[in-house]
Write a structure and sequence with these properties.
This protein has about 325 residues and is an alpha+beta fold. It folds into 3 domains: about 100 residues, Rossmann fold; about 140 residues, ATP-grasp fold, B domain (D-amino Acid Aminotransferase, Chain A, domain 1); about 60 residues, ATP-grasp fold, A domain (Dna Ligase, domain 1, 2-Layer Sandwich). It has a 5-stranded antiparallel sheet, with helices on both faces. It is globular and about 65 Å long.
Length: about 325
């Protein structure tokens, strides 16, 4: 029997433990008990009822880069199992399918009338070269199941692409599906990321692309130049001092009433994205092009301080304020 005096347990489906500490602190601060479930190798009995509570999908499309090639496929089946039993999942199965397919992201952007770069998908050399000839200017390649900016290359011509495809540097990604996309020259060397939770705008931040496209904002992914051989978390434990702020990530002067933000919120609500970081680039003419949807979003602590909030705490508060009263009406929830 559910104890009306206690919040339900939050079950976290995860693949990368480095991203857990901010989430665990947020749940603890908001009074949620939680359990961790590492999704990599395991089994599912469809007759077995899942544990009661809230389930939170934190599966990353870049899991294969950490040796967990099976994680995305298993996560799909776990979410189907949970949802068949009526469990409420933050960023459920539809959100995961958007997360692991840039083509599906493009389809969603088109449904909501959001400007995006011209995009194609192909899984053969012949198709890639034929599609590359459709671009009038520079174009980039990406893995359809992307992550960490891997597989992103800029090309000026079909011949350049052909040379790359024939080289040892070519990586077809986890499923051999490659995205070809129109390159948008940014007005500045930066992209902008809009963070949304529960249909509410949190903040936007600028990320510098001067050092490349590996732009995960998580503190665990920021390696100090003073300790290039250390994992950031190991470095923190060893007493390495990390900078309070980095020019790579800065709070953006964009508000909740911005027309693009409103469209992105509508997309999140309509597509079942309870938590998302959505990226766009502004060109020299001031047009903004959206190109990436991240369901397994992370936050940068320096930007959070500048915004005056904690992204994971805001997500935990969304669970407490909105999800718990709907799913467990008898639970007494503090305001």
């Amino acid at each position: 029997m559910h104890n009306s005096n206690a919040l339900p347990t939050v079950h976290i489906l995860y693949e990368n433990p480095d991203w857990l500490p901010p989430l665990e602190r947020a749940l603890t601060a908001e009074g949620f008990p939680y359990e961790l479930h590492h999704v990599w190798r395991g089994s599912i009995d469809p007759r077995e009822e899942p544990a009661p509570g809230i389930w939170w999908n934190r599966m990353s499309p870049s899991s294969h880069t950490r040796g967990h090639e099976e994680s995305v496929g298993l996560a799909r089946e776990v979410l189907a199992w949970l949802e068949s039993w009526g469990r409420w999942v933050l960023n459920g199965s539809h959100a995961l399918e958007l997360e692991v397919s840039k083509l599906r992201q493009e389809l969603a952007l088109r449904r909501y009338g959001i400007r995006s770069p011209r995009t194609y998908l192909a899984n053969s050399t012949e198709s890639l070269l034929a599609l590359a000839g459709q671009f009038d200017g520079p174009f980039i390649t990406k893995h359809n199941q992307g992550g960490k900016g891997l597989g992103i290359h800029l090309f000026e011509s079909v011949d350049q692409l052909a040379e790359h495809l024939d080289s040892e540097d070519f990586d077809p990604g986890p499923n051999g599906q490659i995205i070809l996309q129109q390159y948008i020259q940014p007005k500045d060397e930066q992209i902008t990321r809009v963070e949304i939770v529960g249909g509410r705008f949190l903040f936007a931040m600028h990320s510098s692309t001067a050092g490349g496209f590996q732009l995960c904002p998580s503190d665990a992914c920021q390696l100090p130049s003073s300790a290039p051989a250390l994992c950031p978390l190991d470095g923190a434990e060893a007493g390495v001092e990390f900078p309070e702020a980095s020019p790579k990530f800065q709070l953006a002067d964009i508000g909740a009433s911005d027309p693009l933000v409103l469209r992105l919120i509508a997309l999140c609500v309509g597509e079942g994205l309870d938590q998302a970081g959505i990226e766009f680039v502004e060109d020299v003419d001031g047009q903004r092009w959206v190109y990436d949807i991240n369901g397994t979003t992370n936050y940068n602590s320096a930007v959070e301080r500048a915004a005056g909030l904690d992204g994971m705490v805001e997500t935990a508060r969304f669970l407490r304020r909105v999800v718990v009263p709907r799913q467990w009406p008898g639970t007494r929830v503090a305001s």
